[in-house]
Amino acid sequence: MNGMSLTTFKGSRYHLLDHNCNNFSNEMAQFLTGKSIPSYITDLPAEILATPLGPQLRMMFDQVANSVTASHVGLDPSRTFGPSSARSPSFDAEEEELMAAARAAVEAPMPRATARVRDPDDSGSDTDEVFQAVSSASGSDRKKPYVFSNIDVTEAYSQLQRGLAGVVPPEDSEILDEVFEFATTTEDNHLALSVSRNHFTFLSDILVSEELGGNLKIQAAKMLQYLVQASPAISVLRMCLEHPIMEYLLVLGKQRNPEPHELCEALKLICNACSSSSGLSWVTDEAEWADLVMDQKLSNVLVTVQFCAWCLAKPSKDVQENAAKLTFNLSSADIPDNLAVLLGEALLKLFANSSSQPQQLSDAVVEPAVAALTSFVELSTQLAQSDRIPGIDWTALQARFPKSKDQIAGLIAKLNAAKSSKRAATTTNT
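and the corresponding structure tokens:
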């Protein structure tokens, strides 16, 4: 509650239509019970805007909100990295107030400890039920999502501390120290009480900075990879109006020649966010939000799927491997049919290209890719009609990857069944 009052739901962020007490109640209800408040409450602003006076009311309320604080959907525009990273007095005062309140909220210092090791094969994980469906559909024995848990968070913190020394103001150094404390405390409830929007925004600002080197971005990504494995951290991300991690994916997607290593770390970050049912739900959330830079409506699932499909087409084997693993994680969720088709087409293209570039594929790519594609074919028969299928030598794939031979056979059967079903439906309609 304290964290929400200081960040996402502080007074200056209030908007009668877009960010009001009903939105706060909905967030709290989801956090406490996992359920939303009735839609007839949250839909009230939309009903008002649909009236003849709606456009005039929207203009009036927007002006009121803008007079309180400038609206920004994106990362922190005030933070810069460099020896002369001066900040406006208003931003400094706000940050000092937030930090003072945050320190006062924690009565006792949190102990330093070794980083918690999260085992993705832990039977107590809340992913068993979610990923059981994928296992059954693909014929694979794999039930768990792909999670990259071997993260040396202490080393990542040390490199960030050294690299940012003299580059960021003391306030930002304190934020980094807090992130490390949260990541290494042995008490899970400390993470729930202490991680805030400000911490995610700080790390994401490092990721999208044009002034910092690639190694610092990699270390920031590793810190985030560790944090997003905890459900309380996902709850904080749900309350971030800036959508910092999704904005990072958008920034990477605009680069002509992004570093493969950075793409891999970004893919691992989203994979780790899928390590819990709450994280998978956040990654595949269809709720729309506005991207003011691109002037369009986006959603977490749309940004994630487009980024993943884009990475599958990259020539780097490591990028393809991590993208295939993320595709597997996404295939367990109920994503929209058109996005399932988008990912399915990207996987089919990957297999079709392997005929001319066989060195690009490996068992690490084929296993998750086949499992994911099998699930997508079940979601949409449209994939069975793809023009890419005739160009795929399934027999050669089975010969090259004997570990996945049975899974490939199952995929072929699914494709044939879906194609026959589509043909029968077409005949009946005719």
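(Above: one complete record from the training split.) The CA atoms of residues 183 and 323 lie 26 Å apart.
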